[in-house]
Each structure stands twice: as C-alpha cells, then as structure tokens.
C-alpha cells in the first residue's frame, strides 16, 4: 500500500521499483587523514615486534589509545560542529571508500549540533545509559548525495545517545547495515529521506522513541525490544518483536507482523567511560524480552576493562591478532581496513571481538576471515567482512563442522556483523556466513553480494550461498541477505527461528538456465532442508529484479518441507516493475506476481 503521510505533510512518492541499480555506482573515495587523536586508555603498550622462530613471542599488552579515527568529544571540545561537518564531507558519498570513523561523545549535554552521518561512520555516547549523553540537536541521515534516493544509505550507525531534535523529529533515512541501537529520541523519528524518496531499510533495537516513528516510503523495517509512541504506516513488511507501543498484528493489510516478545536477546557490547577509564559493557541475556534494557538507568550485565582487550590498529598482522586471542585478550578493532592472511581464530569461551567505525576485515589468498570454536558466549559485533579477489570457501564460520555442544545458557551472538562480496573491488566467496554452533543468535546482519560498484558480474563476484545454518536451535533476528548466485539462506539445523527476513534475488542472472535448481525454476531465497522437522519464521519478504533478463521466472521465494513442525507466518514476494516473476510464494502456495505491478503476493500462514 502507498505510504500515508501525517496531516499537512507532502504526499510521499510511491516506493515502487526502489532499486539501487537505477542509480549506478557512486563510489567517491574518502580521505582518511587523521582529524583528532583518540582519547588514551589505561594500560597502554605497543605490540611486541615479531621474534625469531626460536624465541617465544613477547606477551602482548592490552589497552592503548584508540587511534586517529576515533574522535572523542566532551561538552567543552571546541568546534565540534566543524569537525562533524568535515567528516561528513569526506564520507557522504564514499560508498566504497576507505575512510572509517567513530564519533564518541562523553556523558554530558551538547547543544546546537546536527551530526550528519555518512558511510562507515558510527556515532555513540559513552555513558551506561543513553540519557547520560544528551544532544540538543539531531543525528541525521538523508539522501541528498543520491538525489533523494535512500536505498544505498548503507554502513553507518547511531548508538547510546539521547536526542532532542530541533524541529521535534529526527531524520534517519537509511537502508541496510545501518543500526539504530540504544537511542532515546525525545520526539519523533522520520525514516524517510527529504521529499519521501525511495528507502530500503532497516533496524531499530533497545530504543525509546517518545513520539511517533514515520517510515513513510520505507519498504521494510524490523524493530526489536523497544518502546515507541506509535507507528505511522507500512509499505510491504514491518516487523516488531518485544516492542511497547507497536501496532497490532494485521498482516497483510496493513503488513504488520507483531510478536509480543523476543524469545532470546542479548544486546550488543558497547564502549563506555567509567570516570576516565574506558570499559566495554556486556549486556546480559534476556528471554521473552520486551522493552528497553536501560529503562531504570543502568542496564544489567558485566563489564571488562579496556586493558583486557588488544586494541588493534590497521596494518597489524593476523598472526599478532591470533597471538592476542591465544593469550586470552579480547579484540577491539579500531576504525580501518585489516588484511588477514590466516583466519582469526576465536577458541576461548566468552571472547569479545568488537569493531569501531565499521572496521573491515579482508581475507587474502582465499582464507576464511574469522572462525569461532564450539565454545560458549562469544560476542562478535560491529565489523564488516569484505571478500578478497581469491575465492574463500567461507568468510565467517561460527563453530566447526559438526559442532554439537549445548550453548543455550550462554549463546554466541553475532550482531551488526556485515558481509560484502564485491562492490569495493573484485571479491569471491562460496559461502559467506556459516553457523554451525548450536543456540547461536544472529542479531542484525546484512550479507550482500554486490549488485553495483566495482568488481560486479555474475561470475566476477561469484558467491553461491549467503547464510548457511547447520547448527540446531539457531535464532536470527533481523536477517538481510541479498543477490546470491544460488540460495541466499539455506537452513539445515533443527528448531531454527527467524524473525524478519529481507531479500532480493540476484539482479544479474543472465538467463533462466543460470538459476535453474534442478527441475525448479530459480533458487529459493530461503530454503529449509527436507529433513528438518521443526522450524518457525515470521515476517519474510523476497523481491526479484532480474534486470539482465526480465523474462526469468522464479517458482517460489521460499521452500520448506510440508510438515506440521515447519511453520511460516506472514510471507510475501514482489516483482519489481516486472523484472522477473514469482509463480508462488512458498512451495506451491500463494498467487503469482504479475505484470509490472509491485503489489506483493502474500501468504499469512504455512502450512
């Protein structure tokens, strides 16, 4: 249905055919010169130099400064607005640039700021509660760089701040990989760009929005464990779990999917200041969660001193990072690009790997970027994995093949960990993300085979599978997976659950034969294996936009065994402007899409 504006607002533009390829690749390179030295942390020490093979490497020290691209402000810092504007100028259109920045605000009150957030930029408060750090002003994402089209506003974030918007409503017009976490907006939140242009997002968690949230032209959105003053409208797929003030369940008219609680959640780790000391807070696990974690001020959980982290800088070797992990240190990846010639290996229970400012790991020579052993409570958060030009069999592996330990009491969490194949250059990977460990929680990911940028083509950035889940009892909350050559998501584990799924099939499939799955036309976007007896999912959408051959037919968006224990709720498929068609929604169920209409075909319940 078309967006519904509030009274006296301009009518939004329709969200049909809102796709990125219409813009082409906008890839202005970002300058990455230092702007301000990061605040020093305790226990500072430089990494030891490599030792001769016969000598054991010197122990690495934890702590240290956060590097030149972490900017730390306090209320007395001069020229804050000028610094923010300088970074935005660098990053506004730098979709595939090399600049990476984290903007950190010490607790206190700041006035008269408009922090415009561009690519690879994170803004965050350094208190334990968002209300510890108040900006009388805005944290803004708009789409002026793309002529009002927000469908490419990727890779940026806001976290742990209270905002008092100048005009009463803050604008956050984003697409994928742009989380809005632990924010308190003392007013409304507008998720559309100026002029109500196209938009394709997005994700909110652990936030309190005192006023209404207006998605307007946003095609889809997932909101988790939050409190809102209301929700204005829906286009295709709006999903809520554990949200106070969420609209009632009504899919498909309007397309609201509303769960009263989130079965399992554990908020993302975050950096904060305890006096003058940096620490990393680790929120505790919640079951059947609803509302924010910080409603009474201090959230529940534990914290670690920065001295327990190896504070990594770009240029460090994978061997050094693995030495730090083997020593028992956690990893804090400061903003920048990290090339690794061997997998980063997380073997210890409760290890934290936390990135700042979209720190990016690039595997060289076809290695896997990061592997996690079959251990309890690992937390991976806040970084991007970018495939290299030599094909990697996998890019991220959570647990080894055959992992079977029960981690229900202390699961591994993968949060705001994003994967990209192509776009910034040639990249290949057979499978991007493999989840083998039981009970893993994947909370907000965008796994993307690039449809624009450089190094893009059906075989140039070949990537057959996006996410493969082999482990049992895995939960995904906020799953965005797009454009893979075969299955975008393939689920083989038992008792899996997904709350919200957004997908586009690969634009560049050259012909019907290229996507033929045996005797089935097209690979399903989300396939549950035939031997799975228990699975459940809510609020899933798949879109086709076969621009290379608009005549391609996709038999269905979703495939699953037809058994009582495998349940789907609120499914849709959409043909974008007639570039390809779906014959069904799931298996043989659901009406076909037709013509150039972007009206979804829906199924409320399966079987």
Automatic annotation (TrEMBL):
Please state the Enzyme Commission number of this protein. Answer: 3.2.1.58
The organism encoding this protein is Streptomyces hundungensis
Could you cite one Gene Ontology molecular function of this protein? glucan exo-1,3-beta-glucosidase activity
Keywords, in A-Z order: Glycosidase, Hydrolase, Signal
- Electron transport in keyword set: no
SUPFAM superfamilies under this entry? Pectin lyase-like
TM segments? none
Full protein name = Exo-beta-1,3-glucanase
Signal peptide start-end: 1-45
């Amino acid at each position: 249905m078309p967006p519904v504006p509030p009274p006296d607002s301009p009518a939004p533009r329709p969200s049909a055919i809102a796709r990125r390829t219409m813009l082409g690749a906008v890839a202005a390179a970002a300058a990455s010169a230092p702007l301000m030295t990061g605040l020093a942390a305790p226990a500072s020490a430089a990494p030891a130099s490599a030792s001769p093979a016969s000598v054991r490497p010197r122990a690495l020290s934890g702590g240290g400064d956060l590097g030149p691209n972490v900017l730390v402000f306090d209320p007395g810092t001069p020229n804050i607005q000028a610094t923010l504007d300088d970074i935005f100028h660098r990053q506004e259109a730098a979709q595939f640039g090399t600049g990476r920045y984290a903007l950190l605000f010490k607790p206190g009150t700041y006035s008269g700021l408009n922090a415009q957030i561009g690519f690879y930029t994170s803004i965050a408060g350094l208190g334990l509660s968002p209300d510890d750090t108040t900006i009388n002003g805005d944290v803004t994402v708009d789409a002026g760089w793309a002529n009002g089209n927000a469908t490419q506003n990727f890779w940026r974030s806001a976290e742990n701040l209270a905002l008092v918007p100048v005009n009463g409503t803050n604008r956050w017009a984003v697409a994928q990989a742009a989380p809005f976490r632990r924010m308190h907006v003392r007013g409304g939140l507008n998720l559309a760009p100026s002029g109500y242009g196209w938009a394709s997002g997005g994700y909110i968690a652990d936030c309190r929005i005192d006023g209404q949230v207006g998605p307007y032209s946003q095609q889809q959105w997932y909101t988790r464990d939050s409190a809102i003053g209301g929700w204005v409208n829906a286009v295709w797929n709006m999903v809520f779990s554990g949200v106070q003030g969420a609209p009632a369940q009504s899919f498909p008219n309007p397309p609201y999917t509303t769960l009263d609680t989130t079965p399992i959640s554990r908020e993302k780790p975050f950096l904060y200041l305890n006096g003058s000391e940096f620490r990393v807070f680790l929120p505790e696990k919640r079951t059947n969660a609803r509302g924010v974690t910080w409603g009474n001020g201090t959230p529940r959980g534990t914290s670690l001193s920065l001295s327990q982290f190896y504070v990594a800088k770009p240029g460090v070797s994978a061997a050094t990072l693995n030495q730090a992990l083997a020593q028992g240190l956690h990893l804090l990846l400061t903003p920048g690009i990290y090339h690794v010639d061997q997998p980063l290996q997380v073997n210890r229970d409760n290890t934290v790997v936390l990135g700042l400012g979209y720190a990016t790991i690039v595997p060289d020579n076809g290695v896997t970027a990061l592997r996690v052993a079959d251990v309890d409570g690992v937390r991976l958060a806040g970084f991007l994995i970018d495939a290299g030009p030599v094909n990697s069999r996998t890019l991220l592996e959570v647990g080894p093949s055959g992992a079977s330990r029960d981690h229900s009491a202390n699961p591994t969490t993968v949060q705001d960990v994003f994967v990209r194949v192509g776009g910034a250059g040639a990249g290949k990977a057979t499978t991007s993300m493999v989840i083998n460990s039981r009970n893993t929680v994947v909370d907000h990911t965008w796994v993307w085979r690039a449809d624009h940028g450089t190094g893009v083509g059906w075989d140039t950035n070949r990537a057959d599978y996006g996410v493969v889940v082999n482990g049992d009892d895995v939960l995904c909350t906020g799953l965005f997976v797009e454009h893979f050559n075969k299955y975008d998501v393939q689920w083989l584990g038992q008792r899996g659950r997904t709350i919200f799924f957004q997908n586009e099939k690969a634009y560049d499939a050259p012909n019907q034969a290229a996507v033929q799955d045996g005797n089935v036309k097209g690979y399903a976007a989300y396939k549950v294996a035939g031997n799975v007896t228990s699975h459940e999912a809510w609020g899933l959408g798949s879109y086709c936009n076969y621009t290379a051959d608009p005549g391609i037919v996709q038999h269905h968006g979703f495939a699953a065994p037809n058994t009582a224990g495998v349940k789907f709720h609120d499914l849709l498929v959409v043909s974008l402007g007639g570039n390809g068609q779906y014959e069904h929604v799931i298996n043989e169920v659901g009406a076909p899409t037709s013509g150039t209409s972007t009206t979804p075909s829906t199924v409320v319940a399966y079987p």
